[in-house]
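Problem 12. The chain below contains 334 residues. Write out its predicted structure in token notation.
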Amino acid sequence: MKITQDIFKRFEDFVQIRSSDQFEEHALMLFRYQAERVDLYSAFVNFLGIDPKKISSSKQIPFLPIEFFKTHKLLAQGQQASLVFRSSGTGNMDRSSHYIANPNMYRNSFTKAFELIYGPPKDWIILAYLPSYQEQGQSSLVYMVDELIRLSNDRNSKFYSDRHLLARALKELDSSGKKILLIGVSFALLELAEKERFQLKNTTVMETGGMKGRRKELIREELHEILCESFGVDQIHSEYGMTELQSQAYAPSDGQFITPPWMKVLIRDVYDPFHFVEEGVTGALNIIDLANIQSCAFIATSDLGSLVEDRFSVLGRLDHADIRGCNLLFNQEL
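Solution.
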């Protein structure tokens, strides 16, 4: 497709999307661009024998298996990476890499998504407890939270690595009546919950998912029950994001995630990657993230979940022994 400044401007205006028609138009335009300009995705589309000009719906767009972020550099032709985010893992071979050409678009995406659910960051004191992410570095989550802390413009907003200091600060700040957001990786919040007891009145507790190999994995309901009892709150909030995305979804209650208007989740059959299951049926998550302008916006993840009325739940991880479809064959071809 012919790329003009007008088209690039429309790509960058993804946060202005408000309707399903706008989403469809934007998704199809971005698909045709990436099918031409992102080499690996172009090879993937060609391998499947798909003519981008004949794609007329976002449900017809092929979704790239997320595993390729571990093995290939996904970046549009002519673009230079200003940032590289890496996923958590035990070594470089286990870590996905996301090359970010325009950090401003990432900041725009995560600040607007946060504001849609929780309002301006300046209304919050933000306490972050993300030890594993801080230790490994190059974390998109740490980058995001650091910026939200800056935007909160409160001297009490900060990262914590010491559990005792965090517990003391949390109790003091909560009792002051100010609105607090405690955001933490699941295993760290669980360890805090086992050692401390709180009766929080003004704090929102948000988990970012995953035990990162530190603890036995728990289903979300079990984790939230433990955290609710320890922190003395009625609900635990959840954040859904990943290295390979530039947008996040949030679940203010009951583990039902809300996406911003420029992010969409579809549920695919785990045995047939080209078939989408009905509403309420468990399958694997396909994600369209229109903020992923210069990498790949159409990703087949390894997460299991279901979709009901535009809200999705995450139920676990796909067993790679059960993966079927084009991703394994395509790997052998490259």
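Discussion. Residues 105-251 form a domain with the Rossmann fold fold (CATH 3.40.50.980). Students who got a different answer should revisit the alignment rule from Section 12.3.
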